Amino acid sequence: MKDAFGSPQSVLVLGGTSEIALATVRRFLARRTRTVWLAGRPGPRLDAAAAGLRDEAAAHGAQVGVRTVPFDALAPETHEEVLEKVFAEGDIDLVLVAFGVLGDQTADEHDPMAAVHVTRTNYTGAVSAGLVCANALRAQGHGSLVVLSSVAGERARRANFIYGSSKAGLDTFTQGLGDALHGSGVHVLVVRPGFVHTRMTEGRPPAPLATTPGAVADAIAHGVRRRARTVWVPAALGPVMSVLRHLPRPLFRRLPG
After folding, report:
1. Strand locations in the chain, DSSP E?
2. What are the Cα distances from residue 53, in Å, to 26, 58, 72, 160, 211?
3. How many CA atoms lie within 13 A of 196 on its CB side?
4. Residue 13: strand pairing partners
5. Active site residue ranges
6. Coiled coil: which residue ranges (predicted)?
7. Any idea what the Cα angle at residue 32 is, between residues 26 and 36, rounded to 5°?
8. What are 38's strand-pairing partners?
9. What letter would DSSP give residue 70?
């Protein structure tokens, strides 16, 4: 259950090496989170992420259990077995769905299987894992499900419509899931960041209103505390996209990528 400060005491991250996810967990550790599960593909990066959280907690004198669990977004047939084992260990107060790939728009347009890889990871994998976790949270009667969407899902852009379409599907799915869970005690939060400076975007020119993993983490922590349904990062993107969403298509098409 959440503590007196509104922070989850136990967190499960799907996409355990995500820079945004790890920054978010650090915010929660500062607010008394004491159990963390990092789910991702086994390897040095996942091990290093777990070790880094343990070291940070120890530096602050906190006793935090950080465990890793093998998880592959592209293997939905394994999601129930893997994730139900985590929930069997005890209640999870917050699940953060943070995995995803950006792809290469120019190349992927000419390689259908590469495009499918993007959509299977960002959408199909998240639908599968999200439903497993949602059902587990509903069964325990409490918890938050936080899903990293993207501003790219608000309207298809020439520069990234394959990635954007996968995030649009995820965003719509998550909103509907939130409605389905209404009254169950489970809180669902959709997070829509703009361009975030991470490994995934390294080398790409930043878009206007670019942000950082830390800023997204702060917005998530605040959104969880106030049980928000949607969070834009930065907040100014909300009104900006409200305008762009209704811009005539010939004008929208001419916007820089």
Report:
1. 10-14, 35-40, 65-70, 94-97, 143-148, 186-193, 230-233
2. 7, 9, 21, 33, 23
3. 27
4. 38, 96
5. 163
6. none
7. 60
8. 13, 68
9. E
Q: What is the pLDDT of residues 76-131, one digit of tens each?
A: 999 999 999 999 999 999 999 999 999 999 999 999 999 999 999 999 999 999 99
CB 136 within 8 A of CB 85: no
CA dihedral 88, 47, 218, 237 (to 10 degrees): -100
Q: Rounded to 5 degrees, what angle do the CA atoms 160, 161, 162 make?
A: 95
Q: Which residue, among 117, 200, 102, 213, has the nearest Cα to 159 in the 3D structure?
A: 102
DSSP class of residue 195 equals S
Residue 220 burial by Cβ neighbours in a 10 Å radius (0-12, 13-18, 19+):
buried
The alpha-carbon radius of gyration of the chain (Å, integer) is 18
pTM of the entire predicted model: 0.94
Q: What token pair was written down for 32? A: 């008394």
- Which residue carries 């990293």 as its tokens? 148
